[in-house]
Amino acid sequence: MAKKNAFYAQSGGVTAVINASACGVIETLRQHPEAFGTLYAGHNGILGALTEELIDTSVLSEAQVAALKHTPGGAFGSCRYKLKDIETHQAQYERLIEVFRAHDIGYFFYNGGGDSADTCLKVAQISEKMGYPIQAIHIPKTVDNDLPITDNCPGFGSVAKYIAISTREAALDIASMCATSTKVFILEVMGRHAGWIAAAGGLAGQEEGDAPHLIIFPEVPFEREKVMARVDECVKNYGYCVIVVSEGARYADGTFLADAGTTDAFGHKQLGGVAPTLAGMVKQDLGYKYHWAVADYLQRAARHIASATDVEQAYAVGQAGVELALEGKHSVMPAIIRESNHPYRWHIEQASLADVANVEKFMPRDFISMDGLNITDTCRAYLEPLIQGEDLPPFSKGLPQYIQLEYTFAPRLLAEFTP
Amino acid sequence: MAKKNAFYAQSGGVTAVINASACGVIETLRQHPEAFGTLYAGHNGILGALTEELIDTSVLSEAQVAALKHTPGGAFGSCRYKLKDIETHQAQYERLIEVFRAHDIGYFFYNGGGDSADTCLKVAQISEKMGYPIQAIHIPKTVDNDLPITDNCPGFGSVAKYIAISTREAALDIASMCATSTKVFILEVMGRHAGWIAAAGGLAGQEEGDAPHLIIFPEVPFEREKVMARVDECVKNYGYCVIVVSEGARYADGTFLADAGTTDAFGHKQLGGVAPTLAGMVKQDLGYKYHWAVADYLQRAARHIASATDVEQAYAVGQAGVELALEGKHSVMPAIIRESNHPYRWHIEQASLADVANVEKFMPRDFISMDGLNITDTCRAYLEPLIQGEDLPPFSKGLPQYIQLEYTFAPRLLAEFTP
């Protein structure tokens, strides 16, 4: 088989380590010049393929590629853009194949979450249908940790570490001030559907009474009275209460707390997230002084304190993706398989994309305590290995040195296309 | 002079490094058994002196004391409690002196910000008036960096480093997503009166066009039209816009943005901070997709990425406070004096508390750019040395190992007192 060029793209919300996967792909690919031609990266994810904005990675120096491993964000640009239904929007898929054909691309590496796995699968299907062979390989990434089959998702370990550390640190602050000041602290974390990140906050505590005292999961319907009673109990027992709340916290009827129909003076839907909403309840029901924080992008960009395990796994799935391609595989995803907790051992196996696409993995019920407001030891045993090790980026002048690539684009060969 | 016992207390909002000052005090004091007896720490700051809750630090092991240097929060408890006017509340001051007399305390080390400097001065005055000599020494601490005379305040360098890093990291996230998703990101930081912390966000950028594109200071009256025009310009030029905003951002009439009279559906004052308020303006005036983060306590507790310079200075002012006491000084504060920027050199001198108490240091006008929306090179030259170096705490199981002290209290010798 004549050697083909390859395409790599980043998809969906970026993470502290998605570029480590890119690094794994590029470095491994470069070790096999007999099999692979040029690697093009899509500018802004799959959009770059549709618009024929292909970043030529062959011009990147070894040092630039290596620097990707410690740089957060998406170095080639990512996108929130889901390919539409293949039946009604066949033109989009055909355009993809045209671009791939024009640039002699035979490998499609797609680095993303659940939606991207679906896109990746569709690309495999359309390539078969159109008689232009593409080996489509999905490289897992998501802070939400909600992909099936793989034991965990690259990107999650680092956000978990950041949230656990932040919870522990903020708790020491509140503990020292609670006698005369703030009694309730609320940290809002990501996770609209699954409570994995909120659960990671639970790692901050080690003993009975340690913060966080409550974790509010999307998986557990929110009961205001029960939660407020528990908050009150913590303030009375420990002097203060720390709550980690998932942005996806919701009532039994599915309404998000952060979107509970309240409007501001101008009639706009309340802008605040779930943390200020919950803070309002604390004030109204209990009258305690509160503070709240919303970590937002800070949590998923916090490469400065990334989990070394996460960085290693992110790189490994990139590397494994290329190795699967070498073996002639397609419509697969490298999945992380846990072998043991003590010591933590894992390896990579291939998963079929058909089993991955459009399946969301929620927190198992036995990861959540009986009262629905904390994590269990089973959950802790699952989470702990994922935050092991500190992998600091290089620092200069007190700040992490992250790389920002200047792009060299492949020449355009096709007419313009509006996605 | 017979040797006397000493009292140390933490006051006001805690920081990532206030315990490093405590460590400096304790370790230095222990080196001079000829001069000092037992060091008692006030439980919850000055309240501990009033209520006679004196933590006996002599039982702490060397390792415990050393661990304070890398532990955020206030290890002995702090408080938001300002001693009232000396004329009308003389009983409070007399009680302090009674407690000090009962426990043979001759040294008063008070670790705090501007309000605490005032309290420290008052304690010196009352001790003189009551004929019970106390050497009152103020040890500077405040993330707000607003004490006079000292070039900077321990606690600030670490929050500055955290905010600069977080801004740089979040900016990479937004830059990679802006083509199809978030275009405006707003990070709210502390600083109700002075914009020092917001200014530190400016260190994230190095070149024209780098984030943060706008910094909103409390010192510069907020003009909605001007700010929104600049946001729009950034989105059009760079594809996205990152804003660092001080919680103290206000209109020309002094009204805080975060407290602009808006109420929620229940008629309560809007709970949100300035970040969601500003986000609402972006949505209303420009229609761009936004995200916002409120770092809150996370920023001042972030010991995991503390500035090594800050840790060193926090320890040094604790040490210097004890040395000043040895020299027989009172009503003074060790101040950090900058000698040069390249290389960064500093030393400690004594400042008179009379010159420190109740004076707030704002950002000099030449630290803020002409348009009022960013920092100048002069400001950058001032800030850069303060965030130098990474001083990581020890980690175990992926998390920083912070110490939580168990307190041994000195026996009570006096009747109860309700402050």
From TrEMBL, chains A, B:
Name of the protein: Pyrophosphate--fructose 6-phosphate 1-phosphotransferase
Residues annotated for diphosphate binding in this entry: G13
This protein's pathway: Carbohydrate degradation; glycolysis; D-glyceraldehyde 3-phosphate and glycerone phosphate from D-glucose: step 3/4
Keyword match Cytoplasm: yes
Activity: how regulated: Non-allosteric.
Keywords (A to Z) from UniProt: Cytoplasm, Glycolysis, Kinase, Magnesium, Metal-binding, Transferase
InterPro entries the record matches: ATP_PFK, PFKA, Phosphofructokinase_dom, PKF_sf, PPi-PFK
Subunit structure: Homodimer.
Enzyme class: transferase
Sites where the protein binds substrate: T142, V143, D144, M190, G191, R192, E247, Y297, L298, Q299, R300
Sites annotated Important for catalytic activity and substrate specificity: D115
Location(s) in or outside the cell: Cytoplasm
Gene3D superfamilies xrefs: 3.40.50.450, Phosphofructokinase domain (3.40.50.460)
